[in-house]
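The authors assume throughout that readers already know how a fold can be written as discrete tokens. For illustration, here is how one protein appears when written out as sequence plus structure tokens.
>
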Amino acid sequence: MKHLKMAVVGCGAHSRAVHGPALQRYAATHGLVRLAACCDLDPASAQRFAREFGFEAAYTDVDQMLDREPFDALLLVVPPEKTCELACRLLDRRISLLMEKPPGMTVEETDRMIDSAERGGVMHMVAVNRRFMPFVRALKDRLVADPALKIQHIDYEFVRVNRRDRDFSTTAFHGIDAVRFIAGSDYETVRFTYQPIPSDGFPASNVFMDGSMASGVTVHLKFLPASGALAERVTVYATDRTYELQMPIFRGIDGAGRLRCLERGAAAEVLSGSGGDGAAMVEASGFYGENAAFLEALSHGKRPEPELAAVRQSVAVTACFRARSAEYRRG
């Protein structure tokens, strides 16, 4: 197995809350990763991140950091509108890259990053933590374990409290991609409905997506950024069986989460999470899993998943969400 020299670009609140603790824990328990450097435009943020999570050096300039020392792997956590430019520069340097979602604001940006990665044969992965939530993995395992199981419909509820983002699409990307992962299929068509939130000056809208997957499964997704609760819930309807998943979201009403299987009118299986905020939630919410999967793949010389190409359609559907398109159709 290969030892890896790791760097992080972007030391803001999100990195401190989830990626820093995940990398610190992985490095401490596996011994194959050297947390060599971190970088942020704000020197105080970079220094704080290095101090809290055990990185050896802190920088404020990416190029200076890269020119001073080589790295085997890098985690990129920057605003989505900055991801493409920085990712291409890093991929052109042939640095294996884990990048936060969404990987680019448009399909064109995503294709540009794919081209950069393919030119240099660079290992890369998109950090879509819902795919690495243990409960989502448990649901997925159960859906694929029974070849006779026929999924009919998936409901996805994505609700937040007082989210006044002018562009909520970069957060909605989570749900859009999670449905593809759970269904094991691409979207075929999606119809969008936009409902203005009845509040003065609120820039976001409620958004409803009704679609069908290439597999024939129908889906309904609802995004309400100004509801009375913070939660993500998934219901999968199959013949004679229903799965109900309450996702473990930081500060969410469902705590550490729950997965319940209902079969012919009765509860056949119930899995409940344990623990609240902190280290347990970093694992339950998938952030530890995505960092570990990336580093494990690199250390064994394997291609990490999902790569950019695997989330390209999620970017395309999210771009329609952002543009307030009436419909998406698979090209």
